[in-house]
Design a protein that fits this description.
7 helices; mainly alpha; 111 residues; globular
Length: 111
Amino acid sequence: LQVVEGRSRERIERTYGTTTAENVMNYLTDRRVTNPMSRKEAHALSALLAAEAHDRKTQFADVLLEDDTIRSAFPESTIMEISDPYKYLGESKEIVRAVYNKYHGKRTIHL
């Protein structure tokens, strides 16, 4: 397996950071936040804002910063942190671990 950094960055940039919408939703429902949203509300809002970012070809973080609901829930520094696609891995660690556990030490190519 070879990781090509330029190609990886290109894929991330192509999403405008919308891959972090799940992370934003999780923060919106966090009980430690003042006035947390229901999961349904948070899902709808993060999906709407992610679609807007994609449609406008604008960074998701910028769309979040323009939204009054998001701005009232988090300081700008938190918004930037939770919407940074270079830091957010989502389920990546679990997926890699599951694949490793399934195939490590097993022969996957039969000649």
